[in-house]
Design goal:
By secondary structure, the protein is mainly alpha-helical. The chain has helices at 2-16, 22-42, 47-70, 72-82. Helix content is 79%, strand content 0%. Part of the 30S ribosomal subunit.
């Protein structure tokens, strides 16, 4: 839960500034993913939420691929800040 409080502080800063950046979009998808994951731990047979989670994961993966191609430094910084794994490169 400490991670969620840190995320909420970051989101308040970002919310005031630029919502259209790739970093903010990845951040908002990550918070949605964490919320859905905790929901699915309780409700294992909620298949519509599982589908929504997979769609959000795909969107985040595409945004991270775009960011890694455009700016590797910003990508690495975002990955470390949000504590998520790197995407697999082909």
């Amino acid at each position: 839960m400490v991670k969620n409080s840190v995320i909420s502080i970051i989101s308040q800063k970002e919310n005031e500034e630029n919502r259209g950046t790739v970093e903010f979009q990845v951040f908002s998808f990550t918070t949605k993913i964490r919320r859905l994951t905790s929901h699915l731990e309780l409700h294992k047979k909620d298949f519509s939420s599982q589908r929504g989670l997979r769609k959000i994961l795909g969107k985040r993966q595409r945004l991270l691929a775009y960011l890694s191609k455009r700016s590797r430094g910003r990508y690495k910084e975002l990955i470390n800040e949000l504590d998520i794994r790197e995407i697999k490169t082909r």
